[in-house]
Design brief:
7-stranded mixed sheet; alpha/beta; single chain; 9 strands
Length: 453
């Protein structure tokens, strides 16, 4: 049967309508039951960007252009290094991690106070392996250290640790160095100090800081002095260490990495019967900033003058005058620098995080993140000390503690609450013991009765 054109057209339209409706229904329901696309993952939320400090400049311009110590000013003649060297070994170790300006200032201060440069060793504890030796870090990098300046120009020694060490680990490294080199004793100093000979010291004949330190060492090495471990100059800004004493107590406790590890070490030395006493050799400041030009430590500086002739005359006068007005000005400047450090609202050690450069250089670490990690490690070390000795304060011996108490006492054992709870616990232990003994006696009596029947 042949359909008419009209019917055929209507049939086609009907089929097309059915098809379109089917597609529409299927599309609708597939959209309803299809899973929604996943939400994009959250993006990191970044901490506020702190304001970067201004870039630092080298604080010894003359040394930057020097090829050897001959290109530097002469050490003041009254502080000159003894020639020949004293018969004793006088090694001085200075550790370094961050802030080149402060390290350079410390090194120059000891040299100009008479310490033989060849006796000074800087232990580079930056964790950057050979990057500084190979000149791969720049001045703005917190871990920058100028090997050539220290060794070729200043004439001192540099040793690099294989990795970044904590303070306690670094101190044990000093002891290891002493054992390896056969040093029965050695000096060590912090890198954020300025050491100056006391030029108004009224004892005659005059002696530099170095020679006075040697005298203290000779006094201490005399068998009549007794069983000693350390001599402190301005606490431990400069220290004289007896190697055997430190090994006898097992070295520094590296589980207490920074603060309180000195307390732990010194208290254990005292508990072992070693002497740790103060001594004087000169003036030593604890600072967080640097002099603008370290040449001042050599020449004592010169005030403004009207002519080059006056400048030359003043230079000659200053070079031959001990305890000059310029020297007194220097003392006042260093007093101000020390006060600035001790009274800073952000704490004593703001200098450690002052440099923010070095991006893209080998072993780069975010300076603020590194400082945050150090502070967290310090806090953790304090908790370890408290767990080890059961208390936070340093005066362990005054609290009646002995070496055998380490790790054996309850934390916060001195508080009345802990003491009261300990008493209750002990009473309960005694009750339980008495009860157990009574039960044991009853059991024995029952056994005897059974045997008798």
């Amino acid at each position: 049967m042949i359909l008419s054109r009209t019917k055929l057209k209507r049939c086609s339209l009907f089929i097309f309508a059915i098809f379109s409706l089917t597609v529409t229904v299927l599309t609708f329901y597939s959209g309803v039951f299809r899973k929604a696309p996943p939400s994009p993952p959250p993006k990191p939320i970044y901490k506020p960007i702190s304001e970067s400090p201004p870039p630092i400049v080298d604080n010894f311009p003359r040394a930057a252009f020097a090829n050897s110590s001959a290109d530097l000013p002469q050490v003041p003649e009254w502080n000159a290094t003894p020639d020949p060297h004293v018969v004793e070994n006088t090694p001085l170790i200075i550790g370094f991690t961050r802030n080149w300006r402060l390290l350079q200032q410390t090194v120059v201060s000891y040299i100009t106070a008479g310490w033989p440069p060849g006796d000074i060793t800087v232990v580079e504890n930056t964790g950057t392996m050979f990057a500084n030796r190979d000149g791969l870090l720049t001045l703005q990098n917190p871990f920058y250290l100028n090997h050539r300046r220290l060794t070729t120009v200043f004439g001192i020694n540099v040793i690099s640790t294989p990795t970044l060490l904590t303070f306690a680990q670094l101190q044990n490294f000093y002891v290891y160095m002493a054992l390896e080199k056969g040093w029965e004793h050695y000096f060590w100093s912090h890198m954020d100090v300025v050491a100056i000979s006391d030029e108004d010291y009224n004892i005659q004949p005059y002696q530099s800081l170095y020679m006075r330190a040697v005298d203290v060492m000779r006094e201490t090495l005399n068998p009549d002095y007794g069983r000693w471990a350390a001599r402190w100059f301005a606490y431990d800004r400069l220290s004289l260490i007896r190697t055997k004493a430190y090994t006898d107590v097992g070295g520094w406790d590296t589980m207490i990495p920074f603060y309180m590890t000195d307390c732990d070490m010194h208290e254990r030395l005292f508990m072992k019967g070693f002497k740790l006493e103060d001594a004087k050799a000169g003036k030593i400041w604890d600072v967080s900033t640097s002099l603008d030009d370290l040449e001042l430590l050599y020449r004592r500086g010169m005030k403004d003058t009207k002519s080059k002739k006056d400048l030359s005359v003043r230079a000659q006068d200053e070079a031959s005058q001990r305890n000059s007005p310029i020297y007194q000005d220097l003392l006042r400047t260093l007093d101000d620098m020390q006060h600035q450090k001790s009274s800073h609202s952000a704490g004593r050690n703001t200098w450690q995080a002052r440099q923010r450069g070095g991006q893209g250089e080998p072993f780069y670490r975010d300076p603020e993140g590194f400082e945050k990690a150090i502070l967290m490690t310090i806090d953790f070390g304090r908790k370890i000390f408290e767990e080890k000795w059961g208390r936070g304060p340093c005066n362990l011996r005054e609290a009646g503690m002995v070496e055998a108490d380490a790790w054996k006492v309850v934390v916060n054992w001195e508080s009345p609450q802990v003491q009261a709870q300990a008493k209750k616990d002990q009473e309960q232990v005694e009750k339980d013991k008495a009860k157990k003994e009574k039960e044991g006696q009853n059991n024995k009596a029952d056994i005897r009765k059974e045997k008798a029947t």
